[in-house]
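Assess this one:
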Amino acid sequence: MTFDPNTPEPVAAGQSAARDGPNVQAFIARHRPTVVLAGVLVAQLLLLSIQITRNHDVRLIRVWAVAAVDPFQRSMHGITDLSVGAWRTYRNLSHAQQENQQLRVQLASAESQILQLSEQAAESGRLRTVLEFKNQLPFQTVAAEVIASSPGENSNAVFIDKGVDAGLTSDLAVITPEGVVGKTIAVFPRSAQVLLLSDPSSGVGVMLEKTRVQGVLKGDSQDLCLIRYIMNEEPVTFGETVLTSGLDQIYPKGLRVGIVVQTSAGGIYKNVEVKPAVDLSRLETVLVVQKPNSTQQQASNGRP
């Protein structure tokens, strides 16, 4: 290893700090009069600021202190205001959100109540119409509610909530204020099955309102029925009302069945399509026509 005399020797950290200390001391010793003078001037200035007062007897030192501290105070005041404003905004938003949730719950409850009241009003109106119709009929009826429909995609029968306990039997006409619905085919203690007009196995003795031409109404689909046994030469008008003839001994005479929607000539008999007067897919309250007893039958026939 060779030694280069021109390369400075490494200096330790302690030695550097030791060298800096004497340099500062040497600088102060060299400029001591200036340092002393500066200190005296600062002290004198502080003394004068304490003694001198400005408007309203406010000391100058206080003015300086206020001037020095004022920006910091203003900044802190602004930060505090921002924090308080942010907290108030958050609190107001939280309260508003809670109020909105409460209002939504109240709105949903009000809508549910309105719906229930509307349904009750509609049911009351429907029952009032049925009751008025019932009171106008010349025969006895039993009011019943439709509780179910027979299983199957093209169901043509429904169940009502009255049965043997209400005096019902099979082959009783079932009607509404709009018209004929069908007849009872099976009666149970507290319910009964009703075969609708739209069923192909049903049959109703009918007549046309204007011409009084008679025929037999058979079910064809859920929407339409057919009148059979009307001769081709008999006049049938589109839109003519179809009524019960009473010849089947099940449906009282003169009840509305439907209207003629289409006619065409067949081999011997006309093809007459009829739209039922009652929407058979939306039955709710019906009337079951009771058969008169012997006393009532005699009174209706005028016999002693």
User: Anything to note?
Assistant: The first strand starts at residue 141 and ends at 149. Helices lie at 13-30, 32-51, 60-136, 294-301. Residues 60-136 form the longest helix (77 residues).
